[in-house]
Amino acid sequence: MQDMPDTLEPEPKARKKPIQTVLGFDFGAKRIGIASGQTLTGHANPLLTLSNVNNKPDWVKIESLINEWKPQALIVGLPYLLDGTETDMTLRADKFARRLHGRFGLPVFTVSETLSSFEAEEQLKQTKKIGKQNKHEIDKLAAALIIETWLQEQK
């Protein structure tokens, strides 16, 4: 894959207000975890997990969330292997990020999300039993961790 910028943004003059609210996405083949975050507080909160429809993102629900939360930017986690190698999922998540930008015209930032799902599962194991019936909990918490990674990178 070519070197891609860490952000897909409209022309600088098109951005009118500073980034305060963001939505984060943990892209997966079956599900997409979504979280919201605030640059003012530096925190993120898991929102929900969407199931993909016919192996494609549920664009109608994503649009509804963007209309509801009115974020100034979107954050997408890119999964890499521990050695930094790209995988098929890295390419698919990058394609998802580009489609978000194309559909909604918002700046889209990408961050490495290596081990975010593992970390989310470890955190959840402290309070819940994790099984197939609640894997969606991991996805939305992973999205929050992706936002928090991005927020830390902004400091």
Structural notes for this entry:
The chain has one domain (21-154): Nucleotidyltransferase, domain 5 (2-Layer Sandwich). Helix 2 links the parallel strand 5 (73-78) and strand 6. Helix 3 packs across helix 4 (135-154). The chain has helices spanning 59-69, 88-104, 116-125, 135-154; strands at residues 7-8, 21-27, 31-38, 43-51, 73-78, 108-112. Residues 1-5 have low confidence and may be disordered. It is globular and about 35 Å long. It has a six-stranded mixed sheet with strand order 1-6-5-2-3-4, sandwiched between helices. Helices cover 37% and strands 24% of the residues. It is α/β, with parallel strands linked by helices.
Key words describing this protein structure:
37% helix; alpha/beta; globular; single chain; disordered N terminus
Mean pLDDT, all residues: 83
- Main sheet: which strands, in order across? 1-6-5-2-3-4
From the 3D coordinates, which CATH architecture would you assign?
Answer: 2-Layer Sandwich
Number of helices: 4
By DSSP, the count of extended strands is: 6
SSE order, one letter for each helix or strand: EEEEHEHEHH
Q: Which spans have pLDDT < 50 for at least 5 consecutive residues? A: 1-5
- Secondary-structure content class: alpha/beta
CATH class: Alpha Beta
Beginning-to-end CA distance, first to last residue: 28 Å
Helix content: 25-40%
Looking at the structure, what is the overall shape? globular
Biggest beta sheet summary: 6 strands, mixed
CATH topology: Nucleotidyltransferase, domain 5
